[in-house]
Amino acid sequence: MRNDSHLPQALQGLRLPLVASPMFILSGPELVVAQCKAGIVGSFPALNAREAEGEPPLLDAWLTQIAEALDKHNQENPDQPAAPFAVNQIVHRSNSRLNRDLEICVKHKVPIWITSLGAREEVNEAAHSCGGIVLHDIINNRFAHKAIEKGADGLIAVAAGAGGHAGPQSPFALIREIREWFDGPLLLSGALATGEGLLAARAMGADLGYMGSAFIATREANAVPGYKDMIVSGGADDIVTSSLFTGVSGNYLRPSIEAAGLDPDNLPSADASSMNFGDGSSKPKAWKEIWGAGQGIGAVKQIAGAAELVDRIEAEYLAAGARMAAEFAR
Ligand SMILES: Cc1cc2nc3c(=O)[nH]c(=O)nc-3n(C[C@H](O)[C@H](O)[C@H](O)COP(=O)(O)O)c2cc1C
């Protein structure tokens, strides 16, 4: 039995100690509901819910849709209740929707809030005001300290090889340094795409894994077929790190950079001051088809349903655990 009694209630009793990370454009209600029904925490960036001018907030509608779908599942499957869901807030100062989105999330009593790109006390207070917990994503120990000082409940260590805005540090170094002073909820991300990797994250001292790119090649992900195919055919050699597209260092699929007519081996760098989340993404429209992914995609061999992916990760996790248990029993 996994002992998770030290974790906040929202993170207890999951089928697997795993949170599916929020991904710009790709994660919406369909993917989140499938992840939660499969027993892991599903999540989406609030900025993915974008209504047309003059229409009511789509975030409000999405949160109602997710809550209703999960309630229905729980009534029909009392023995296998859905995991709770999380909403990601980009707290960067250029996100002009932040206050409105916070109010909507408080109204819906969102249970888990994932914050990225800057820790802000008022966001943590908003989450706590409705009984939610905040997990803040960081790429080094200094930012980890800052996040906890500002009132986050837990940390997501984004290590080298992660999709999106990856950190440069080894997961071994990062987890060890954080665990020297922090015994609260700690998640690890960065190229995690297997059950063996998840077990390794737990052995290192993380409470849960945090996995994104593997879910791009699921049927429920909002990605064009070419993107999903590129995840299936790609591996770590196909991942290029560049700051050009958003102003911060991120990981992208090499063939998508080539398809846009750029040379992946000679990309100029960009300044962090060019980051702007005013319209949802900090990536200019011209680079819409430059696709993000982490180094773990070599483990993704097919496009599958999110539930099938979770089944695969669970089988690997249990087999790896049994192998280790047998080794230590000797
Ligand atoms: C295409 C893509 C888009 C992402 N968008 C976001 C985002 O909007 N907000 C966020 O907090 N993280 C975002 N991430 C980062 C993930 O939250 C997470 O750190 C990452 O997926 C973990 O690494 P992995 O992809 O190797 O599993 C994104 C990642 C990818 C691959």
From TrEMBL:
> Which CDD domains does the annotation name?
NPD_like
Matches recorded under InterPro entries: Aldolase_TIM, NMO
Query: Which SUPFAM superfamilies does the record associate with it?
Result: Inosine monophosphate dehydrogenase (IMPDH)
Keywords tagged on the record: Flavoprotein, FMN, Monooxygenase, Oxidoreductase
Tell me the superkingdom of the source: Bacteria
The keyword Flavoprotein appears for this protein: yes
Q: Where is the signal peptide?
A: none
Q: Which family does it belong to?
A: Belongs to the nitronate monooxygenase family. NMO class I subfamily.
Instruction: From the Swiss-Prot or TrEMBL record, give the protein name.
Output: Nitronate monooxygenase
Q: Which organism is it from?
A: Sulfitobacter dubius
Record lineage: Bacteria, Pseudomonadati, Pseudomonadota, Alphaproteobacteria, Rhodobacterales
